[in-house]
């Protein structure tokens, strides 16, 4: 193991990524959920493919956006939907979304682990873009029969190269496919076991060494980012330059795309 690379989890201010506390801190720090690193995603770009499918599914519909973050993705559908509701657990994100003040867009705070705060058959369609998989336990109830539900979630193989290149800085990847198995289980429990799950894999290219550290420290306190930069940037730069291609440092970009009709 490369002892010159620190494990950022030992810092006393480290928060577990994607915990409620982590999201609340990100909301306070940024007011929005947007990645802090710079990169280029090669084709097929699962994020772009998902956006295309959402655009077709929400036309003239009453739509639910689950895990909407600060609402950037939600708001772009305002011109083509009847109405869209964004739901997220982080109050600061919801406040940012509500600043748009559009008549056919509503943002609400809610925890999907407690169920969705809507009536049965309230929506024509729903989507979940990197949001909580616990929503699949209840989303089939709130979407009308025949309505489409789309989901996009990080795959088990995402950025699998980083722990090998930057040991200690990145924790080892899990064996098997725990994310996919959890996704299948949640869909099954929510009566959506007939869903199609497609794995879309390409490459993401980090533009410069600092982007590796930005990714690792995303959502953490500025003190952690500064500490990791001071401890690791020289070695990260060395490893980056050894392994980089012309486009940047190549790592696996993987998403699970969920398609289901209620």
Automatic annotation (TrEMBL):
InterPro entries linked to this entry: Methyltransf_25 (IPR041698), SAM-dependent_MTases_sf (IPR029063)
Gene Ontology biological process terms from the UniProt entry: methylation
Keyword Transferase annotated: yes
Molecular functions per Gene Ontology: methyltransferase activity
Residue ranges of every copy of the Methyltransferase domain listed in the record: 63-129
Keyword list, A-Z: Methyltransferase, Transferase
Entry-linked Pfam families: Methyltransf_25
The protein's name in its UniProt record: SAM-dependent methyltransferase
Organism whose genome encodes this protein: Paenibacillus elgii
């Amino acid at each position: 193991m490369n002892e010159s690379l620190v494990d950022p989890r030992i810092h006393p201010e480290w928060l577990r990524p994607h915990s409620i506390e982590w999201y609340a801190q990100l909301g306070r720090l940024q007011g929005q959920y947007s990645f802090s690193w710079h990169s280029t995603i090669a084709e097929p770009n699962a994020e772009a493919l998902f956006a295309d499918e959402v655009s077709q599914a929400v036309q003239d519909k009453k739509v639910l956006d689950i895990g909407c973050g600060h609402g950037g993705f939600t708001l772009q559908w305002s011109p083509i939907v009847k109405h869209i509701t964004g739901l997220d657990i982080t109050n600061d994100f919801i406040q940012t979304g509500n600043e748009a003040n559009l008549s056919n867009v509503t943002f609400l705070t809610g925890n999907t682990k407690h169920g969705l705060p809507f009536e049965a058959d309230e929506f024509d369609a729903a989507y979940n873009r990197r949001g909580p998989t616990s929503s699949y336990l209840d989303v089939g109830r709130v979407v009308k029969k025949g309505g489409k539900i789309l989901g996009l979630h990080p795959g088990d193989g995402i950025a699998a190269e980083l722990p090998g290149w930057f040991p200690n800085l990145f924790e080892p990847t899990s064996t098997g496919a725990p994310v996919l198995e959890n996704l299948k289980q949640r869909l099954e429990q929510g009566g959506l076991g007939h869903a199609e799950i497609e794995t879309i894999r390409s490459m993401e290219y980090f533009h410069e060494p600092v982007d590796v550290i930005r990714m690792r420290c995303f959502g953490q306190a500025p003190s952690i980012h500064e500490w990791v930069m001071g401890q690791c940037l020289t070695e990260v730069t060395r490893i980056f330059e050894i392994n980089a291609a012309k486009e940047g440092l190549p790592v696996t970009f993987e998403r699970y795309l969920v398609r289901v009709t209620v």
